[in-house]
Design brief:
The protein is an alpha/beta fold. The chain folds into 3 domains: about 5-270, Aldolase class I (TIM Barrel); about 290-400, Helix Hairpins (Orthogonal Bundle); about 405-515, Double Stranded RNA Binding Domain (2-Layer Sandwich), CATH 3.30.160.270. It is about 40% helix and about 20% strand. It is built from 16 helices and 15 strands. The protein has a 7-stranded parallel β-sheet. A 3-stranded antiparallel β-sheet has the order 10-11-12. Helix 11 (about 290-310) crosses helix 12 (about 345-360) and helix 15 packs parallel to helix 16 (about 500-515). It starts with a helix and ends with a helix. The relative contact order is 0.05.
């Protein structure tokens, strides 16, 4: 449905907020809705001093007159007049020869100048489009544009915008760019011309056409947020701007809250933005593939290492993370949605979510083991697994079991000298029966394993790691134990306020998992 006045105003305010300085606000001679909207933003004082509104009009006297009436009182206006010049439209629509069609354009230019005299309070500028430019002979398109420029008589300080629209995208982007280069080199009064592009997306290459056309000599590009427009739409200014940003070029447009921009555009257009639309879709910073997740995880870790080495904040160093061309935070996204786990995911994705969501830096072999458990869940249920479901599975697998062994409390007597023997007295439950066990060893972990050996649990620790999960009064520590128990190699995990208690819980976890294996 066409935008209501309220939705038009929302879109206009968004474009102003983002930093656009020339905004096409409507076709006021085509509908009362557009006419009223243009009047409202003028009379409401909604147009900032540094913004110029642009209005579209065909080269017809009655339409041009009404357009100027709609814009009366505006501080600055670009009047964008156009007529179709293509071979096909000259033949089947206008049934006119070249000279007659060129006269439509020059007469339109004269009418615009004549109406402007009636409204001296406004700073008028002009834009001309040979519509269906891509279906027009190049030499003829140049001839028409030069004739219009002769009427407008632009100067370097008051230039004419010559807009060359791919009204219908009819060829590969390089062909469009070649035509732009030729026009840029051959247009008369080039120093008084702003050469503008207006690519449509019929072949799906509007962004490429715009980028190549700009490199070929254009000065300006017209488009829409998320590529809205006739048929397949206009060039997407979000993609275009953030492509520049990804290469280190500031587009001078504020994309820092891409989700709010998208929500507003979806509301105004009443059209959804696809989940995989570049830069703005829900899934564009999300990896499901296991190898991609692993690379992203390692890339984010390396960014922290590089920042520490440079004594800088991560935000201040060059962004270099595999599969992420820009930092999602630069457009207001978080890392929480960067990695999502389904049946295609591997250990990297599981490890990332456990670290990002729960602060657990799982050792590599534990990553492999737990990711296999997650794989069984996703294979069985289909789809992806949410971080909470993953945490529930982790708790059930590593933290919840209390049989056959449960630790109640312990007392550790540390050795007075380095290298000495620690002793431990622990109260445990074995198959529900509370017992006191005593052991000694090189540290609390070894002492606890010694104590367990006395009651029938032969625990041989193969690997051990620990880390703090958080800081402050409610700090938690995590410990990971890989152990050989009864001929089985298993992992155990413990979480507690103290690292000693966490390590003992990890041993208990391993014992109970071995009993279940």
């Amino acid at each position: 449905d066409p935008m209501s006045p309220e939705r038009k105003r929302r879109m206009f305010d968004l474009l102003v907020q983002m930093g656009f300085k020339e905004i096409e606000v409507g076709f006021p001679s085509a509908s009362q809705t557009d006419y009223d909207f243009v009047r409202s933003i003028i009379t409401d004082g909604a147009i900032p001093d540094d913004v110029t509104i642009q209005v579209l009009v065909q080269c017809r006297p009655d339409l041009i007159k009404r357009t100027y009436e709609a814009c009366a009182g505006a501080p600055k206006v670009i009047v964008h007049f156009y007529n179709s010049t293509s071979i096909l439209q000259r033949r089947v629509v206008f049934r006119a020869d070249r000279e007659a069609v060129k006269k439509i354009a020059t007469d339109g230019a004269k009418m615009c100048l004549a109406e402007a005299v009636k409204h001296p309070e406004t700073e008028w500028r002009y834009e001309y489009s040979p519509e269906s430019y891509t279906g027009t002979e190049l030499e003829y398109a140049k001839d028409v544009c030069d004739a219009v420029a002769d009427v407008i008589a632009p100067t370097p300080d008051w230039p004419l915008i010559v807009n060359l629209p791919a009204t219908v995208e009819m060829a590969t982007p390089n062909v469009y760019a070649d035509s732009i280069e030729w026009m840029s080199r051959n247009l008369a009064r080039r120093d008084s011309i702003i050469l503008s592009l207006h690519p449509h997306n019929d072949r799906g290459t509007a962004v490429a056409a715009a980028e190549l056309g700009f490199q070929a000599g254009a000065d300006r590009i017209e488009g829409c947020l998320f590529g809205n427009g006739e048929r397949t739409g206009n060039v997407c200014l979000v993609t275009l701007g953030l492509n520049m940003f990804s290469r280190g070029v500031d587009p001078q447009i504020d994309f820092s809250n891409i989700d709010e921009i998208r929500r507003t555009v979806e509301y105004c257009n009443q059209l959804a933005v696809p989940e995989r639309h570049p830069y703005g879709g829900d899934l564009v910073y999300t990896a499901f593939s296991g190898s991609h997740q692993d690379a992203i995880n390692k890339g984010l870790d390396q960014m922290k290492v590089d920042a520490d080495a440079a004594d800088a904040d991560v935000e201040d160093i060059l962004w270099q993370v595999p599969y992420l061309p820009i930092d999602p935070k630069d457009v207001g996204r978080t890392y929480e949605a960067v990695i999502r786990v389904n049946s295609q995911s591997g250990k990297g994705g599981v490890a990332y979510i456990m670290k990002a969501d729960r602060g657990l830096a799982l050792p590599r072999r534990l990553q492999i083991e737990f990711s296999q458990a997650i794989q069984r869940i996703t294979d069985g249920e289909g789809g992806e697994i949410a971080p909470k479901e993953m945490w529930d599975a982790f708790q059930q697998e590593y933290l919840a079991p209390v049989t056959p062994l449960e630790r109640i409390r312990q007392k550790v007597d540390a050795a007075e000298e380095d290298g000495g023997t620690d002793t431990i007295t622990a109260i445990v439950k074995i198959d529900g029966e509370e017992r006191e066990i005593v052991g000694a060893g090189n540290g609390p972990l070894a002492a606890f394993c010694d104590a367990l050996g006395a009651v029938g649990f032969d625990v041989n620790v193969l690997d051990y790691s620990e880390h703090a999960m958080s800081a402050g009064e409610e700090a938690q520590a995590a410990a990971y134990v890989e152990a050989s128990i009864g001929g089985k190699t298993v992992w155990g995990v413990g979480i507690a306020p103290s690292i000693t208690t966490a390590s003992l819980r990890a041993v208990v976890s391993a014992v109970n998992r071995a009993a279940r294996a």
